[in-house]
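[job 0412] stage=fold_complex status=start
inputs:
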Amino acid sequence: MEICGGHTHAIFRYGLDKLTPPGLEFIHGPGCPVCVLPMSRIDECVEIAERPGVIMTTFGDAMRVPGHRKSLIQAKADGADIRMVYSPLDALELARRHPDREVVFFGLGFETTTPSTALTILQAAADGQTNFSVFCNHITVPPPIKALLDDPHMVLDGFVGPGHVSMVIGVHPYDFIARDYGKPIVVAGFEPLDLLQSVLMVLEQIRDGRAEVENQYSRVVPENGNPVSIAACAEVYEPRPSFEWRGLGEIDASGLRIRPAFSAWDAEVKFGVGYGKGPRAVAEPDGCRCGDVMTGRIKPHACPQFGTGCTPEMPLGALMVSSEGACAAYFQYGGLRLEAAL
Amino acid sequence: MKYADEFRDPVAARGVLAAIARITDEIGATRKSPSTSWKSAAATPMRSFAMASTS
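[job 0412] stage=fold_complex status=done
writing structure:
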């Protein structure tokens, strides 16, 4: 399983699935943060965005994720002030420019983006910028891998780990995969040759009967990660008891929330929404099988909506929305765009 | 980039692909049974590998 959606796209973009032997099958993991975000969180984000005086900000790929009622871009079309930013610092700058408005950053992503949000909150706290807050949806990689490994129906022989995540957290958070489950994992870079070499390293472990954490991306990934980022995250966030993942359900300690010391910058506190404030489960759209794709039970093209009721232009499920989604990869690079258009 | 010749380092790519094919064959992997000969192994310390040049 390649955990990361960026790896999934690299595999298809460079045709690595065609270059490798048929006995080698890539299972696409849950490593696309937009894809695993439950619809209930989009609904809550829209609810905040539609309040008077709010400027909601977020990354571009979160704009089109369907919620139960509407996506953020639909809410924007309906009149909500929702703006795309490239960094949470852009949102903080908006707060400085609009002291009469409440600027909210819809923060989401794995360990790759948690530090920038944490550092922005620390900056807002240092500046006393209280009209800025974060709707925190940051999540972590190791807990869902453990959930997948605990699934009795899951058949995985090894993992290719996301190099950019390990650039922040290092490689040791994955030790349990080898130690407790006897599965190999290789932290990998994103060049096509990085991926091929990582696959080879996983295969060598399987052949030799080894189960280790190996670092193929050692030119970028330090064994113990980035201590400045880790310290900033530890200061600002604490684990939630559990967090809902689309397709995987609630997973213990898989999400992060803002510590009480920074509650002045926590949109859940400021606006009274979020975990514990309402029902969590929101049904997926009819026919959408994002959950089965996410857990590797089916391939994207086995979903009845793939390429017909669900396309990148008009996505039904989150896996077709994000540039890192498995369905978008199949559609874009699998020769299926043309077929679907016919 | 569907062909190894189009990699930045086609020689390295062809070598890695050949090794992947050889080991996949050695462990008897098929699409229905990807790793028939794999056995659970005790963990050993992490190793770090240098990346082959891609340029």
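[job 0412] summary: Chain A touches chain B through 47 residues (CB under 8 Å).
[job 0412] exit 0
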